[in-house]
Design a protein that fits this description.
With 374 residues, the chain is α+β, with helices and mostly antiparallel strands. It contains eight helices and eleven strands.
Length: 374
């Protein structure tokens, strides 16, 4: 017998085997549903999706070493099913089981993909898509997991009028909100609307009525950090979430996110720039410390082979891990500075210590360098 001792291979085979077992169970369940109801077709689709994910993982396992005891052998999927593969009784309990299990696969796939391997990323994307489909199509009442691709409602661009470091400047047709602690001095405001945003002056420097309101709205939405936001006073709609969630990797700089953002469990508007150099004193936000630290990282990392997302919008949760990477949950297209697609993911771990060799993805270097997030 050849035992798998390589940790990466072990994790890959473990998820592949679990996918195979759940695929059998989904097939068995679908054939016990006699009527052509949507849940029957969905269970078949989920089973086919797990087959595709298991195929990707099998290809990855076959390229990984089995371990030091068998230096000339590669790993491989063993199709070990540790759970009963028989059909579950029809009803809500089965739906909850399938939904919870696929959510576990999505989380495990995201962890496996944090090293940036193309096949691991593809499998993670597949698991994320399946988990969302199950959460949306099999839930009968309160969902056991949060469907990360649920349509995004228009979130308020500003949590409140007051707050430390937050200025609210009232205009005739809109209020401008400026949060200095999030500003990275991209200068879109002072170059695109110099009559509104007066650079290097004493006293009031923001004058929201100096240009037509629609033009000011467009300029405000160019601010990548979300330091400038607005609230309409004329009955027109406020800023809404984009139709495609994006994260742009800036050359030698931060990640620029655009989506319905939730950072560390709190609503954060639609735009934010988060540190990826590890030096910011205002983590997880960028404060410009990458310039002082001499951070050198390309904004044009290589593209990975990833499938198109079934949905491209929805809530985007950004959860900084203690002394570790940035966990991303939700539909996201990661772009190079030139706009080229690097990856499409439903979950991922992005480097924020600055040391990963697989930027923008985490490769575990934060442990090696003793990265501290506080």
């Amino acid at each position: 017998r050849v035992w798998i001792e390589n940790d990466d291979a072990f994790a890959t085979v473990d998820i592949a085997n679990a996918s195979y077992a759940l695929m059998l169970r989904l097939l068995a369940y679908s054939y016990t549903v006699r009527r052509p109801v949507p849940q029957k077709a969905l269970c078949l689709d989920l089973a086919m999706g797990l087959m595709r994910a298991a195929t990707i993982l099998a290809e990855r396992a076959a390229r990984l070493p089995a371990g030091p005891s068998n230096p000339h052998s590669h790993a491989g999927v063993s199709f070990t099913a540790l759970r009963d593969a028989g059909a579950l009784p029809l009803g809500r309990a089965a739906h909850l089981f399938f939904t919870e299990r696929l959510a576990q696969f999505a989380a495990a796939g995201a962890e496996l993909a944090c090293g940036g391997d193309a096949r691991a990323l593809a499998a993670a994307g597949q698991f994320g898509a399946l988990a969302r489909r199950a959460a949306q199509g099999l839930s009968l009442g309160p969902a056991p997991v949060t469907p990360v691709s649920a349509p995004a409602a228009a979130a308020p661009p500003v949590p409140s009028d007051a707050g430390e470091g937050v200025e609210v400047i009232r205009g005739e047709r809109l209020d401008l909100i400026y949060e200095g602690s999030r500003c990275i001095h991209s200068r879109f405001c002072v170059t695109l609307a110099p009559r509104v945003f007066l650079a290097n002056v004493k006293g009031p420097w923001i004058h929201p009525d100096a240009i037509p309101v629609e033009r000011l709205v467009a300029v405000s939405e160019q601010c990548p950090s979300g330091a400038i936001r607005y609230r309409r006073r004329d009955g027109q709609p406020d800023e809404r979430a984009p139709e495609v969630n994006l994260a742009t990797v800036r050359e030698a700089g931060p990640y620029a996110f655009h989506g319905a953002l939730e950072i560390d469990g709190r609503p954060a508007g639609f735009r934010a720039t988060l540190c990826r150099c590890g030096a910011s004193r205002h983590k997880p936000f960028c404060d410009g410390s990458h310039r002082e630290a001499g951070f050198a990282a390309t904004g044009e990392p290589p593209s990975t082979r990833t499938e198109a997302l079934e949905k491209r919008d929805g809530p985007l949760a950004l959860d900084p891990q203690p002394d570790g990477p940035l966990k991303v949950s939700g539909n996201l297209e990661i772009l190079a500075g030139s706009g080229r697609v690097i990856a499409r993911v439903a979950s991922a771990y992005l480097c924020r210590c600055g040391a990963s060799a697989t930027k923008p993805f985490c490769d575990g270097s934060h442990r090696r360098i003793g990265f501290k997030s506080t």
